[in-house]
Automatic annotation (TrEMBL):
This is Hydantoinase/carbamoylase family amidase. Keywords: Hydrolase. Belongs to the peptidase M20 family. It comes from the Bacteria. It holds the Pfam family Peptidase_M20.
Amino acid sequence: MAHEAPWRTEPDFALAQSLFDTFQTIGFDGRGITRASYGEGEERAHNHVRSVAADLGLEVRTDWAMNLYVTLPGRDRSLPAVMTGSHLDSVPVGGNFDGAAGVVAGLSVLSGWVREGATPSRDVTLMAIRAEESAWFPVSYIGSKAAFGLLDAAALQARRTDTRRTLAEHIAEAGGNAEAFKKPGLDPKHIDCFVELHIEQGPTLIGKNAQVGIVTGICGSSRYRHAEVHGVWAHSGATPRAYRHDAVIGAARLVERLHREWLEIEADGGEMTLTFGVFQTDPTQADFSTIAGKVGLSIDVRSRFLELLSKMNARILDIVQQIAMDNDVEIKLGPHTGSTPAQMDDTILKDLMTLAKNSEISAIAMPSGAGHDSAIFANQGVPTAMLFVRNQNGSHNPDEAMDFADFKAGSRLLSQILANRSA
């Protein structure tokens, strides 16, 4: 006799290991994992999930942006669906667990339920989300925004960093239809909740000796990806200091001044991060005996608080003017991009903490400094939660090292919360 409820059903961890192994093969670039957004690696990963889901007898569909939805039908299909999922693309030379762990966990949960004949009260849907990593296109959360009809025509003309072809072209190549960008694939009113499992991308869980993090909120961002400081190229020996327009000095002073602003904000109790991930002279002109006339840099500010992001951006604009004037250089910040912070659902957070305690899973509440697709769901009014799984060596690098025992703990917790919400 088929079980009606999946409360005690173990996720299919043999399938999970097989999926990780396949994704490793699909994405390996010789050093790490590269599955470009709307590239061959992401496409092959999506096709593999689709194939496995079909073999399990699960329903499969895609939307216009080729997000993938895998559904175990519930007894009452008119009820709002319980959802889980994450992304399958990676940064260049990244790791095999960032994003993929959430898809693997969701599919292993559904496979376990199918194996035991479990039937939820409502649909439970796994979403394999396209193009979460903005390393490829200068647009945040492409797949989840597309699902809710939040992408605009300008975003579809964004060009991928390696191919220089537009997002619309890449979507079409994957089998989608960018002309339907105003047609959402998801309606918030038809979603009971969204729970995303993801590896932690920092050292907090390692430092706290906890297997799982239960996320309280997700940072938003304020970014200048392609800022430039322009001076004058000149001979290093023949140009006295008074006559120099040194782009390196201007850029260095800009970095130092913004860093000091960060320290002052933290001293006042503000919570944010500031990163200059790119800082480079023009390799075609730079030379040890030449005063640099151009420096390119990026500015990445993140915070869970929108007011603080706005305040810091205003300070950046003021400081840029000051530095440019004081150092006889020109500073062009370029396009301003960003994302909105999101708060996770208090009720689901409390339920997860209780489930973790009852299951003797070591868990702590913590914020997410990185952005995730869950932010889009939360800001669309969907009750949303995130689970972090302990992971050594950070993420966005080939050395990601999630212990499978920790993945099992996080997946069991995911299974329990999805079961509770679909009871």
